[in-house]
Amino acid sequence: MILTLQYLRGVAALLVVIFHLETQTRRLGYLGYWPEWMFVGVDVFFILSGFLMWAITANRSQSPKDFLLRRFVRVAPLYWLITSVVVGVMLFAPNLMMTGRFVLSHVIGSYLFVAMPNSSGWLTPVLNVGWTLNLEILFYVIFACCLLIPKKFRIAAVSATMSLIVASGQLFPENNIWALQYTSSILYEFVFGMCIAQLYQNGRLAFIGPLLASLMIASGFFLFIYNDEISNARWRAVTAGLPAAVVFIGFLALEEKARLRPMRWLEALGNSSYSLYLTHLITLSVVFQIWRKLGGESFPAGVWIFSLLALFSCLLVAEIVFRFLEKPINGLFQELLTQINWIKKQSPVG
Q1: 45: CB partners within 8 A, 6+ apart
Q2: Residue 52 class from Cβ within 10 Å (0-12 exposed, 13-18 middle, 19+ buried)?
Q3: Is the whole-model pTM more than 0.85?
Q4: Inter-axis angle of helices 242-256 and 188-201, to 10 degrees?
Q5: Cα→Cα distances 134→19, 29, 64, Å
Q6: What is the Cα–Cα distance from 340 to 231, expressed in whole angstroms?
Q7: Which tens digits make up the pLDDT trace of 149-179?
């Protein structure tokens, strides 16, 4: 297990939670500073995804069909389950929704990982954070197609495809919602991850010592915090993606020099990161509603108590969902895939 991969996916999910917590603190009347740069957790996720996809396919043959099936089984079931919960609320308790209302095309698009406008005209799926999964699935499809060509050309092929997609955004008005999402330079971050994986596997990061690695991590976070243009969709691969890549490389280099140690809480956070990412908006909303009914706004330092309580609740719910839903579901589908592959091998045709 690569500790850096495990730790950073947990930290990335936690950053996104803290970023989204701002919405609830503003509703409680807090108008002070908030670390809005923490949405870069998404950029870290995309780089980690590119890294992982290259790492699991670089040294073994895998057909596009098998690759997509395995990724689908990993990503879709839990996402669909939580999406269904939100759809149920839309249908049977719409007063609990802040903005979302049931729109059939929007709901179908959410299940198919295709961006469709919601009742407010935005392209966020039923489960808002699912917009990143729409891009993730797009990357999987492109990557799967590139598995048909020799390994030495794959990164170039994925890069060229992403470049064409991003460049096509220039053909649309700046306010086109589909172009803003699907042609964002954020797509290059998957390529960054693939490149880092190849460098890592070829031992090209060995020259980075602990001091340089630490400086890379520090400089990456400095750029996150002080870059005012970090969320610009057109330049996001530069303003957020490159610093995230530098931070990732820095931690990989530290691990190579045995400067990272196993930490159970970070490993646990990494394990439940997907559950945390998918459930945290629901948890934050529920905790806010309870807090308001209890009159929490009147408590001294109420915003900060609420924030700590909300963060703890998000982590607790994620751990429960991981242990009792995500892990069993993944195990069930992985066993099913194993049985299907065994049957194929036994078949005279196969």
Answers
A1: 9, 12, 13, 132, 277
A2: middle
A3: yes
A4: 20
A5: 20, 33, 18
A6: 44
A7: 999 999 999 999 999 999 999 899 888 899 9
